[in-house]
Amino acid sequence: xxxxxQEVDPADRWVLDPDTxxxxxxxxxxxxxxxxxxxxxxxxxxxPGGRAARRRGAGAARSRRxxxxxxxxxxAALVLVAGCGGALFLYEHFNDNITAVKVxxxxxxxxxxxxxxxxxxxxxxxxxxxxxxxxxGDAGSTGHADTTLLFHIAKDRSNATVVSIPRDLxxxxxxxxSGDKRIPGEARAMFNTSLGQDxxxxxxxxxxxxxxxxxxxxxxxxxxxxAVKTLSTAVGGVEVCAAKDINDPDxxxxxxxxxxxxxxxxxxxxxRTRHAVxxxxxxxxxxxxxxxxxxxxxxxxxxxxxxxxxKLWNLANAATKALTVDxxxxxxxxxxxxxxxxxxxxxxxITFATVPVLDDPQDKNRLALKQPDAGRLFSMVAGDRSxxxxxxxxxxxxxxxxxxxxxxxxxxxxxxxxVPVTVRNGTGTPGRAQQTVDRLRAAGFTKAATAANxxxxxxxxxxxxxxxxxxxxxxxxxLGLPATALKEEPGAGxxxxxxxxxxxxxxxxxxxxxxxxxxxxxxxxxxxxxADDAGLCAK
Length: 539
Description:
Blueprint: E1 14-16, E2 23-25, H1 50-76, E3 99-101, E4 119-126, E5 145-153, E6 160-164, E7 170-173, E8 176-178, E9 181-183, E10 186-190, H2 202-213, E11 219-223, H3 226-234, E12 238-242, E13 246-248, E14 253-255, E15 258-262, H4 264-272, H5 282-301, H6 303-306, H7 309-321, E16 323-326, H8 332-342, E17 350-354, E18 357-360, E19 363-369, H9 373-382, H10 406-410, E20 421-425, H11 432-442, E21 448-450, E22 461-464, H12 469-479, E23 486-488, E24 498-502, H13 506-510, E25 528-530
Parallel strand pairs: 3-16, 4-11, 6-17, 20-21, 20-24, 22-23
Antiparallel strand pairs: 1-2, 4-5, 5-6, 7-10, 8-9, 11-16, 12-15, 13-14, 17-25, 18-19, 22-24
Helix pairs in contact: 3-4, 3-7, 9-11
């Protein structure tokens, strides 16, 4: 019996657009009515060429349809998955599902320098249980940053690095603006309170990550608990592995040793469990989440998903309903453009890593950055350096469009290990001197050290004795400072160190990506997971 328009599955409404040769979703209601008389031969008239020709024609049409559908689906696929969710977006039909927030980031001069053709996306997994009943999250929680990922996509799209930021990490949260409300910052607070606490919106987490890492964020995506349930179900389940039997009464996960295909509530329980695996803390849960996300990426990018209109529809519908983005990603068109970039990255060149941390000296139940390892990792991401064996991107300073900085063109060959450097903070933002020292040490300036803070100053500078002009030029190159930042100090002795005074422009300077300042190797013992590793098991 002929169904009504409401009974037609939208996944079956893919039609070939004769103008573009691509498949699209036809969501217009199908109202039965008289059909127009055909302009050509009757529908049952045999085409010329006989039965064999008809078979060849039908086979060619099916082949073209498969190729077109696979190309269209692959180009439109976007994978941005957090510990409690992820997203894949398709056509304009889903625009109404998307919730957008206009973030207010303050003074542009205080932000890190733009990433250029590279892209950095902040993925926030909130523990809000709004609309999910009483089974998930903390009762009365406003939705803190339960899981946070900094998703870096290389400028040449050859690789991606996904950095996990632990929720228990102690950080400085800057002042931020949420709507009409000005929210004061905190000199020392858990990272997860950068969202939700005192009304903080995702823009507050955005500013906190930029202050913490010196890496400029381009967009954010925020998802809730429901996303991992709906997305894992939409792809038909996500394969995970347990190295031992798991029985966690807190997350309600009961899982026998071995591999399992999880979806819905079981998938959510898997990414939330921590008390029954490893050491029982958040640092144990992060690798487990990375295993799940890697498997989710493989499932979404698989041929079974990309060639299935029904699965693509289900994924898009589930993801956009669970999604909040910044105003720069508020339409499917914007998301589709981002998807084109993400889909170019081979899974074997996607690396998950956790920010190097250690127990906080003031509170053993909290975490602090482990330096200089954390600074080295941040510098690699800011400098677009892959954590895999993907080809290294071309040095931006070598690009004719970019051109060398004045200091780079004049800098002589200098052994950075022989250069004593003192760094003073005049930015007004605590921690900038140490961050700069960490980056300089990672670049080979092992004699770099901090000194007392200076009064607030606008522009960064390097003071140097007359006899050490060459070393000063090399230091300016490493920091990405122009030649105009070099200041000869007539009263300085030949053995005095070079003095770096960080001004308010140092937020950009700290993330300088001059070739000599970007480490080529990741920190030793860096926790990492490769997205193409299907043999990972939760321990």
